[in-house]
Amino acid sequence: MEEREKHPKGFRYIFWGELAERGSFYGVVVLITAYLMSQLHFTQGKTGVVVHGFKALAYILPILGGYIADRWLGKFKTVIYFSIPYIIGHLVLGGFQTEGALYLALLLLAAGSGTIKPNVGPLMGLMYDNENKSPELRQRAFSYFYAAINIGAVASMTTLPSIRTKYGYGPAFMVPAALMVAAMIIFYLGKP
């Protein structure tokens, strides 16, 4: 097979890292509504405001993530550095069942996810450009990349409710924390 038609070595790290990161994010999404209502005794209205506010923040903050990467840190460092508050957000959410801890955790989770989100895909595209890979191979790589997102989301959304039922919310929220730690390690190992 011609070298131009082989995926770069770094592709597998991005694929598995993105799968774990999206599993981490959607792990929170699948649990948070029931958690707010059953554990923190939020009303349905307050729960909706908090959950939608969290998701909105996670999808607005990519603007900041792109700016930070473009102006100061670069894409790789932005992903690594903002993985840390992301992980801390999971630990706070799984370890402390108070309203204050909830808001801190959701802020950290939205900042981590939102800041990482605009940098992984472009970083992968740059990898294909820098190694002069064919446009067809790059297109296949992005198909796999989006498959990783969906696999991670579906896997966490189908397994975490069972973990919550069997072990409680604390352990269920720690699974996404472990996924995010795995994502950061995998991504970091792919730097060379």
Q: What would you note in describing this structure?
A:
The chain is mainly alpha-helical and about 190 residues long. Helix content is about 85%, strand content about 0%. It is built from seven helices and no strands. α1 (about 10-40) packs antiparallel against α2 (about 45-60) and α2 runs parallel beside α5 (about 100-130). The chain starts with 10 loop residues before the first helix and ends with a helix. The model has no long low-confidence stretch (mean pLDDT about 95).
Portion in beta strands: under 5%
Count up the helices.
7
Mean pLDDT: 93
Q: Could you name the ranges where pLDDT drops below 50 across 5 or more consecutive residues?
A: none
What is this structure, in a nutshell?
The chain has 192 residues and is mainly α. The chain has helices spanning 11-38, 44-60, 62-73, 75-95, 99-130, 135-167, 169-189.
Feature tags:
single chain, 192 residues, mainly alpha, 7 helices
List the helices and strands and how they pair.
Blueprint: H1 11-38, H2 44-60, H3 62-73, H4 75-95, H5 99-130, H6 135-167, H7 169-189
Helix pairs in contact: 1-2, 1-5, 1-6, 1-7, 2-5, 3-4, 3-5, 4-5, 4-7, 5-6, 6-7
